[in-house]
Amino acid sequence: MNKETFPTRLSMLASFLRGSAGYFLASVVFASLASLFDLLNPKIVAFVVDHLLESGNRADAFSWIRGHLFFVAVIVTLFTALGALSRYLYNLFNAKGAEKLVAGMRNRLFGHIQHLPFSWFMENPTGDIIQRCTSDVETVKMFLSEQLTGMLRIVVMLAIAFFFMCGISLKLTVPAAVFVPVIFLYSLFFHRGIGRTFLTADEEEGKLSSIAQENLTGVRVVRAFGRERYEEKRFARQNTAYTGAYKKLGMLISIFWSVGDFISGLQVMIIVALGAVMTVRGELTPGSYIAFVSYNAMIAWPVRMLGRVISDMSKAGVSVDRIRDIMNAEAESDPAGALCPPMDRDIEFSHVTFSYRKDMPPILDDVSFTVKAGTTFGILGGTGSGKSTLAALLLGLYPLPEGSGTITVGGVDVRRISLPWLRGQVALVMQEPFLFSGTIRENIAIARKDAVEKDIIKSAEISDLVETINNFTDKYDTVVGERGVTLSGGQKQRTAIAQAVIRDTPVLVFDDALSAVDAETDVKIRHALREEFRGKTVILIAHRITTLMEADQILILDHGKAAGIGSHEELYAANPIYRKVCDIQSGTGEEAENEDF
Ligand code: ATP
Ligand code: MG
To answer: Most buried by CB count within 10 Å: which residue of 23, 111, 195, 247?
Structure first.
C-alpha cells in the first residue's frame, strides 16, 4: 500500500459507508458494553475469593453478603444477561448495517457499469466483472461490518481490561502489555507480505470464473466443434493455477497463525508464572491473581484477533482497489452543452480514420461519404472491412478521437450530440442480435416502454414475424430462453428488426440484419420497410448485393477504405469491384476470386 492509495481507499470506503455508518456505530457501542459486562465478572470472582472465602467468618463490612450469597449470584446473572443483551444488539445493528452497505455497494457498482463505454467491456472479461461485484463486495462488507467494527470493539475492550489490570497490579501489567505491540507488529509485518499473494489468488479466481463463464455461454460451439477435451484441459490448467495460489496463501496463513499462537501462549504462561510468584510473596491477593490471570486470558484472543483483522485488511484493500478500478473507469457522459439536434438531416462522414487500439493500423482509413436525409444508403464490404465499425461510430459506441475526421448529422458533430438523444434517434439492429430471457412481446417492446399491442403487432408484421409467432403455442407470450436460444438465427434477427422498427426513429441502421433470413423473406421485409419508412434515413449494411441494390446510394468499403459510391446502375457500369461481386453473387461471374465478398 503506498501513500497515495491509502487516502483514496479510505475515501472510497467512507463513501460506501454512507447510510450504514449509524448502524455500525451503534453496534460498536453495544459491543463495548458487552465487553464491559464480561470484564466485570472477574472483579466479582476476586471479591468473592478475597472477602468472602479468604476471610472466614470474620465480622466485617461484608458479613451481610456472606449471609446472603444469592445476592452475588443475582449480580453475576444480571451482568451476564446485560452482556448477552448488548451482544444481541451489537449483532442486530451490525447485520442491518452490513446488509444495507452491501446492497448499496452492489447497486452503485451495477449502476456505474451500466454507463461505462463499450470499449471498457472489451477490455474486461465478464467473469472478472462479476467477481468484482460479488466476492470483492463481500470482502469489503466483511471488512467494514466485521473487521473494522471488530477492531474498534477490541481496542475498547483492551482499554477497559488494561484499566482493570493496572488497578490490580501495575508491576504485572507491564510484562502483559509488552506482548501487545509484539503481536501487533508481527501481524502488521506479516499482512504486508500476504497482500501480493492474495491479489494473485484473487486474479486466478477471476480468470477461472471467466473461463467457466465463456464455456457456458459458448456451449453450442464447444459441442459442435468437439472442443470438450480442450476446454476441460484449459479449465484444469487454470484450476491448478488457482489452487496453487490458494495453497500458497493457506501456507502463509497457517505459518502466521502458528507463530501467533506460540507468542500468545508464551505471554499467558509468563503472566501465570509471574503472578504466582507475586501471590506467594504476598504482593497479590489470591482473588486479584485469579482476576488478573482471567483478564490476561481474556485479552489474549482479542490481541490475536487484532492481528487477524489487520491481516484481513490487506484483503479488503485489494478488493477495494478492484472495486475502485470499476468506479474510477470513466462513465460515458455527455459533453458540456450537449445538443439534441433534429436527426432527420444528412449524415456526413468526413475523412474518418479509426482504430480500436492506438498501436494497430487503422480499421477505417480516410472514409468520406454522405447519407442524404430520407434516403436508403447501402454499405457493401467484405468481412472485416469496417462496416460494423462505421455503425458503432455513428452511435457513439466508440468515441471518434479528435483529429480523426468528423461524423455530422445536419452539420452537428456527433461528439457534441447528447448520447441518449443520439441513440434514441438512431435505431441500430445489431449484427449479432441479443435477446433477453423474457417473452417475445417483452423483447420487441424493450426499447419502447409505452408500446401498445397495436405497435407490437405492426412491427412484427413489418419484420415478417407474425407467421412465426402464430405458430408458437403461447404466441407473443412465448418465452425465448436465455439469449433467445429457443429461436432460430433468422427468427432472432427478425425479432431484433422488430425491436428497432417499433421505436419509430428518424434513422435506422441495419447491420447485416437480413443475413440470416432467406432471400424471399429478405425481399418481403425490405419492401415492408420501404412502405413504412418512406422519408426516413435507412442505412443498410450487407454482404448480399440483392439486399442493397435498390438503395439510393451504395458505398463500397474495401479493407477500411471507401472504394466507390453510387447507385447500383452507376456502380455496375463503372466500378470493377462492384461488378465482379455482383456477377459472382448472381452466378454469372467467373469463379469467386474475391473471397472477401
Ligand atoms: P463483418 O462483415 O464480418 O461483420 P465488418 O465489416 O462489420 O465485418 P468490423 O466489425 O467493423 O467489420 O471490424 C473491422 C475490423 O476491426 C476487423 O478486422 C476486426 O478484427 C476489428 N475489430 C472489430 N471490433 C473490434 C474491437 N472491439 N477491438 C479490436 N478490433 C476490433
Ligand atoms: Mg459487421
So the answer is: 23
